[in-house]
Each structure stands twice: as structure tokens, then as C-alpha cells.
Amino acid sequence: MSDIHPDVSSVQLTALVVNCTLKPSPAESSSEVMGGQLSTFLAERGVQCESVRVVDHVILPGVQKDMGEGDEWPTLREKVLSADILVFVTPTWLGQHSSVAQRVLERLDAELSETDADGRPILFDKVAVAGVVGNEDGAHHITAVLFQALNDVGFTVPAQGCVYWNGEAMHATDYKDLEQTPEKVSASISTSLTNAVHLARLLRESGYPASN
Predict the structure, then answer these.
(1) Which helix H or strand E contains 191, and what residues bound it?
(2) Is the Cβ–Cβ distance between 49 and 17 less than 8 Å?
(3) Which of 117, 125, 149, 190 is the right S-S partner for 207, CB 3.0 to 4.6 Å?
């Protein structure tokens, strides 16, 4: 994953890594580690990346674009809308995605009623991939939930668009504790993000048509 791949297209793609760890900065986080690996891979392929640790911000509960005083979601929302690729990373707790991840999905629900000048959902032409880490089972279930929700609001998921790592059951080793990235995880990073970049370029050059 260290080889530099120059951007062969004139299209400058952008990506936003949304880290849904429960641990505020500066605490170590396995989600942060995986998010950093995904960001590095994209940057080496000419994609401009930004990362956000959601728990460091005040994201009020609700399903509106702006829930009023103190709500920091509108700023994060603008970053989501500006990015070509959303990299959605969550830890596994009790076999589920984190409560922070659920909060982000709930706030994205507001985009169901938002359309562009052609009457298309505002998140059409955006690509989403997922990263899931945990020292317990649950990655397949979490991925299914994330992809269903993200697709509902308009994102397109590339082929094999998830990267995950499950630690050995009943053990305490976290992803951040590993001395090196497992070969299968590295392969998944390469496949999912290569496909994401390819798909994002296609959608930037020729987006989905209006349905009416």
C-alpha cells in the first residue's frame, strides 16, 4: 500500500473519513487507525482526504438538517455534501455499530427530502464505503445496516465496498494493537478503495440521469 499511484485523471476527487469511535480525542482508537489507513490509500491515489472524529463534535439527536442552537451537524453535513467519497468507519459494540454511527445515519435521513436542480436526491453521484473494526463478531451485520441506510439516502456502494477486522472471540486484542496489518485486510483496502475511486470518477464525469 506504499506505492504512489499518480492521478491519471484531471478530475480532483475528495473523500471524507467519518470516524464513529466512542472515544474522544486524543484517546487511541482502532477506528482511527483503520480510518488513517483508508485515508492514506486514497491520498496515494490522488484523492484529497479529510478526517472527522464525530464524537469530538456536538451532533444533536434528530432527523433535520439543523437541530438548532449548539448543533454542529450542519458543518459536518457540508463536508459530507462536498466529498465525492464517504468513508464511514465504526467500531463494533455488542455486535452493533456504535451509537455515534447511528446518530450520523439518523442525521443523514434529512437528505431524503433534499434534491438538486434536476430533481435528483442531493447525494446521488456520491460513493460510500465502510470500515468496521472490533474484537467481537458483527461486521457483516453492521455492513448490511450501513449499506442499506447509506444507499437509501442516495449513496452508491462499489463492489466489495467494505473493509473489516474481527478479533478472535473472547480475546482483548484490538485492531490498534496489531503489529502489522493482516494481509486480508490490506487486500480488502485495495479492492474496496480502488473500486470506490473508479466509481467516483465515473459519477463525476457522468452522473445519474434525472428520473422525471
Answers:
(1) helix 183-205
(2) yes
(3) 125
